[in-house]
């Protein structure tokens, strides 16, 4: 068994990855792990990866306001 | 423990290439053993296997340990110098000494510094700025300051000029070798180390073709400059190698008593280089 | 503990710092110099009276806050260093075992009585525990220079400097938080550390390409065989969750280290690290 695993770098890599994936998948199935939501808790930059459309809309609104502000010619 | 190295049927394949094809090797304690073979014969693979730098199949014991299992323990008793400069090029000379001092329990800093003071190696230079000869000198200085039982040298003087080469072997013999330590040297420049060796091992195509002490060599192998009228008689004794030499016929015999050969012509003990060629040719012809 | 073993491990760490001077010292020094030059350049563009006002504003801003309250704000100044350390760590981890083999020095390292486990552990300790020390010291030096400069500026513009003294204390408190953040992040990222080391020990050429390529391949295989995406999810949370990176309060350190995800990460990371340790035996 040991001879087989350590025969060469490729067998070792495959065995390591199988063990790693085995643990990862088993744990995931038991705990029902989900992808962590990428969320900035920051009042100035409201970004939520599950609500990307909403983020873009809000940004467009902001841009429009800025454009209007620029149009007034206020320097 | 009378044998420092005991290896039985070592095998190693790199893909479809067979580097070691059943190597049997025993090296007694205190020997200076030359491992001699052409390029690609398996010299480096054998040496690397001895110090656990390369996995092989077969039985292997070096200084009483299996190098495949406890390499780092084994390296307390064994040192290694390779043909290519293996000292890290970005390190300064003084840093290498610091490192070995901290890492090796048997390193004597004073000894190393004393040795280095006899060379032109500056302590604050990086290794990449040293000449190849200096790097080898530095490595030798480190190794000589370590109290080890076995020193493994893989073509240590390859690419060095004659002055460095000569000095290297002089130092090795005078400052390192004390009769108890064992040295294994691989090379294909046979002539240079012939006089130093106590044991001789020929390797070709992953097989050991000769393994003998130098003193036994003259008992087993005889070179005869056969007189012109006795060629047929000589052929009948099955020489392992025949060549023409300055108009004379030189025959090399294996395990034929000298008594029997005396009448054929002038007897010699073959030089290691001639013997090497003889053994290799013999292999080729079967 | 065995004194020789400690000295031996210290030598291994020293070796890492000497070999990767650019990653441990060079990179943060460059970032610090750039920040200093940029700040001073900006300050020179601003009108002197405005500058004095700005200084006053800074010293008033933190009025009534303890240095530890202010520290999180100052930590934000360290974000460029944090990103540098992150990028440098990836470069370091993917190259460190590979380079030994490429330049053949692996034969020298292996000819010393040091086990593969010690070698690989020294590399992890060097980047997770030791590198942040250098970064913090360099940030400290940068703050020191900045404080001297601010003080000179303050005196020459007749500004009350009491607040700035507090600011300095806060800066030092923030250094502690930066160090802890970096180490805790290192632990949290242990699976990534293991992955990079495994391929650094494995690849004969282009280790980063192997690391990325096999990651994608294994991700697809998982989806194909099990119909799940745990690897992809795991990688996503490892690489792009900023909540995992900075720690603003000492109180949350315990919770960060002893939470399920970090501990599970240490377990699965150890599998990959063990793979790297065994992989190190293949020296060609």
Q: Overview of this structure, please?
A:
The complex is a heterotrimer of chains A (75), B (286) and C (284). By secondary structure, chain A is an all-alpha fold. Chain A folds into 2 domains: 1-34; 36-75, no CATH class. Helices cover 63% and strands 0% of the residues of chain A. Chain A is built from 3 helices and no strands. The termini of chain A are far apart. Chain B is an alpha/beta fold and 286 residues long. Chain B has 2 domains: 3-205, Rossmann fold (3-Layer(aba) Sandwich); 216-285. Chain B contains 11 helices and 13 strands. In chain B, the strands form 3 sheets. Chain B has a 6-stranded mixed β-sheet with strand order 5-6-7-3-8-9, with helices on both faces. A 4-stranded antiparallel β-sheet of chain B has the order 11-12-10-13. Chain B has a 3-stranded antiparallel β-sheet with strand order 2-1-4, covered by helices on one side. In chain B, a hairpin with a 2-residue loop joins strand 8 and strand 9. The two termini of chain B are 37 Å apart. Chain C has 284 residues and is mainly alpha-helical. Chain C has one domain (3-279). Chain C is 82% helix and 0% strand. Chain C contains 13 helices and no strands. Chain C is elongated, with a radius of gyration of 22 Å. The mean pLDDT of chain C is 89. Classes of the chains: A mainly alpha (75), B alpha/beta (286), C mainly alpha (284). Chains A and C meet through helix 2 of A and helix 10, helix 11 and helix 13 of C.
Strand order of the largest sheet of chain B: 5-6-7-3-8-9
Helix-strand string of chain A:
HHH
- What is the string of helix and strand elements of chain B? EEEHEHEHHHEHEHEEHEHEEHEH
Number of strands of chain A: 0
Total beta strands of chain B: 13
Computed over alpha carbons, the radius of gyration of chain A is 25 Å
Please mark out the parts of chain B with pLDDT under 50 across 5 or more consecutive residues, or reply none: none
Structure at a glance:
Chain B has 286 residues and is α/β, with parallel strands linked by helices.
List keywords for this structure.
heterotrimer, B: 286 residues, 2 domains, 33% helix, elongated, C: 284 residues, mainly alpha, 13 helices, 0% strand
What's the arrangement of secondary structure elements?
The complex is a heterotrimer of chains A (75), B (286) and C (284).
Chain A: H1 2-5, H2 9-31, H3 52-71
Chain B: E1 3-14, E2 17-28, E3 32-36, H1 43-50, E4 57-62, H2 71-74, E5 78-81, H3 93-103, H4 109-117, H5 132-144, E6 150-154, H6 162-176, E7 182-187, H7 190-193, E8 199-204, E9 207-213, H8 214-220, E10 221-226, H9 231-236, E11 241-245, E12 248-254, H10 258-261, E13 265-268, H11 272-285
Helix pairs in contact in B: 4-5, 5-6
Chain C: H1 3-19, H2 21-45, H3 48-61, H4 67-75, H5 79-102, H6 106-110, H7 116-156, H8 162-188, H9 190-202, H10 207-226, H11 230-240, H12 252-257, H13 260-279
């Amino acid at each position: 068994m040991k001879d087989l695993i350590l025969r060469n770098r490729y067998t070792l890599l495959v065995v390591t990855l199988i063990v790693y994936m085995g643990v990862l998948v088993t744990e995931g199935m038991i705990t029902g792990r989900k992808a962590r939501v990428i969320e900035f808790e920051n009042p100035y930059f409201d970004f939520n990866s599950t609500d990307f459309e909403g983020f873009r809309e809000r940004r467009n609104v902001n841009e429009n306001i800025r454009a209007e502000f620029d149009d007034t010619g206020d320097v | 423990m009378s044998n420092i190295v005991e290896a039985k049927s070592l095998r190693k394949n790199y893909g479809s290439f067979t580097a070691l094809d059943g190597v049997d090797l025993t090296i007694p304690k205190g020997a200076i053993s030359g491992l001699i073979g052409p390029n690609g014969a398996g010299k480096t693979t054998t040496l690397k296997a001895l110090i656990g730098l390369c996995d092989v199949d077969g039985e292997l014991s070096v200084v009483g340990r299996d190098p495949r299992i406890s390499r780092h323990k084994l390296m307390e008793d064994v040192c290694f110098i390779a043909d290519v400069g293996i000292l890290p090029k970005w390190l300064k000379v003084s840093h290498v000494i610091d490192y070995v001092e901290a890492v090796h329990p048997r390193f004597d800093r004073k000894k190393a510094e004393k040795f280095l003071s006899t060379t032109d190696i500056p302590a604050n230079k990086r290794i990449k700025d040293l000449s190849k000869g200096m790097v080898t000198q530095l490595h030798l200085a480190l190794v000589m300051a370590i109290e080890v039982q076995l020193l493994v040298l893989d073509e240590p003087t390859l690419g060095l000029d004659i002055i460095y080469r000569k000095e290297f072997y002089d130092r090795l013999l005078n400052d390192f070798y004390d009769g108890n330590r064992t040295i294994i040297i691989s090379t294909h420049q046979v002539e240079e180390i012939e006089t130093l060796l106590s044991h001789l091992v020929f390797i070709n195509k992953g097989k050991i073709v000769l393994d003998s002490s130098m003193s036994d060599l003259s008992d087993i192998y005889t070179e005869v400059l056969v007189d012109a009228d006795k060629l047929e008689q000589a052929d009948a004794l099955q020489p392992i190698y025949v060549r023409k030499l300055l108009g004379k016929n030189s025959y090399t015999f294996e395990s034929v008593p000298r008594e029997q050969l005396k009448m054929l012509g002038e007897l010699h003990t073959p030089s290691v280089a001639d013997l090497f060629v003889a053994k290799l040719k013999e292999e080729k012809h079967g | 503990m065995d004194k020789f073993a400690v000295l031996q491990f210290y030598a291994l760490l020293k070796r890492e710092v000497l070999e990767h001077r650019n990653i441990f010292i060079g990179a943060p020094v460059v970032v610090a110099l750039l920040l200093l030059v940029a700040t001073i350049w900006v300050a020179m563009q601003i009108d002197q009276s405005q500058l004095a006002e700005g200084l006053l504003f800074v010293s008033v801003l933190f009025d009534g806050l303890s240095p530890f309250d202010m520290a999180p704000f100052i930590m934000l100044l360290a974000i460029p260093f944090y990103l540098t350390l992150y990028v440098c760590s990836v470069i370091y981890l993917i190259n460190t075992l590979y380079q030994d083999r490429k330049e053949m020095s692996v034969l020298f390292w292996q000819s010393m009585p040091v086990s593969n486990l010690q070698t690989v552990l020294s590399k992890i300790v060097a980047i997770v525990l030791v590198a942040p020390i250098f970064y913090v010291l360099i940030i400290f030096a940068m703050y020191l220079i900045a404080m001297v400069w601010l003080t000179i500026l303050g005196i020459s513009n007749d500004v009350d400097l009491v607040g700035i003294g507090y600011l300095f204390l806060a800066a030092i408190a923030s250094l502690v938080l930066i160090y802890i953040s970096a180490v805790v992040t290192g632990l949290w990222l242990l699976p990534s550390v293991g992955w990079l080391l495994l391929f650094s020990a494995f690849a004969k050429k282009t280790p980063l390409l192997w690391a990325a390529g096999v990651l994608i391949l294994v991700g697809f295989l998982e989806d194909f065989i099990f119909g799940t995406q745990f690897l992809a999810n795991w990688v996503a949370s490892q690489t792009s969750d900023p909540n995992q990176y900075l720690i603003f309060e000492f109180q949350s350190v315990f919770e960060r280290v002893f939470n399920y995800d970090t501990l599970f990460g240490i377990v699965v990371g150890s599998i990959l690290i063990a793979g790297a340790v065994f992989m190190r035996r293949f020296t060609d």
